[in-house]
Design a protein that fits this description.
mainly beta; 2 domains; 225 residues; single chain
Length: 225
């Protein structure tokens, strides 16, 4: 497992070995208002408090951070990290992050051909990947996780037990739904500190499973709860 993870991390690192376009770009910092990184342009740090951030196709940025707002990433975008507190992160195909993606109250989705050098983390929000490589871990407290078809996670997948450190938290009465899809690979363990519903495709490969019993399935979609 460690050999596979090292190979994955190396392959992701090579993507960012060349000088990045966002290294010397313009910084944009706002309190109120949205930010748009225009198509094909390079930026530094994009930061706002009350507003969304959009990275148009082919643009690049060092980081994109907001407090109250979502982050929308078009195809073929490069960035170091994406972060929001109250909002979602949604990336199109072939997004390239050298760092990670993080939300507190919001979902995270990456589409085909994307690479994330570090981890993907939420507290209250779903995580979805389709044919995406993640060099680090995937973690949530109170959200569903789908490691979709053809995705590869170099670290672990973990659902943490809610503690006072996460307060306030909107604890769902329903169990989080965890799906490891067709031909997906998780090099590290699957760790569940609270009760979940776990589906693992018969073609998927994972590390050791702790805290849940996997329901195996065939076909393109996991069974409905």
């Amino acid at each position: 497992m460690s050999r596979n993870r090292n190979a994955l991390c190396l392959s992701i690192a090579l993507v960012f070995a060349a000088p990045a376009a966002f290294a010397a770009g313009e910084n944009i910092d706002k309190i109120n208002g949205s930010i748009t990184a225009e198509a094909g342009q390079g930026y530094g740090n994009l930061e706002t408090v009350n507003g969304s951030i959009t990275l148009e196709s082919g643009s690049s940025a060092d980081s994109a951070e907001t407090v109250n707002g979502s982050i929308r990433v078009a195809d073929n975008v490069q960035a170091r990290s994406l972060s929001t507190v109250n909002g979602s992160i949604r990336a199109g195909g072939k997004a390239q992050l050298s760092g990670g993606a993080e939300t507190v109250n919001g979902s995270i989705f990456f589409d085909r051909g994307s690479r994330i050098g570090d981890g993907v983390t939420t507290v209250n929000g779903a995580i979805g990947l389709v044919e995406t490589e993640v060099g680090g871990d995937i973690e949530t407290v109170n959200g569903d996780i789908t490691v979709g078809i053809g995705s590869h996670v170099g670290g672990h997948v973990k659902v943490e037990k809610p503690t006072s450190n996460w307060m306030p938290i909107n604890l769902n009465k329903r169990k989080p739904r965890i799906v490891i899809g067709p031909n997906a690979v998780v090099d590290g363990p699957l760790i569940f500190e609270r009760e979940v519903t776990l589906y693992v495709h018969n073609t998927a490969r994972t590390g050791k499973i702790t805290g849940a019993t996997a329901v195996r399935y065939d076909g393109a979609r996991a069974p409905q709860d």
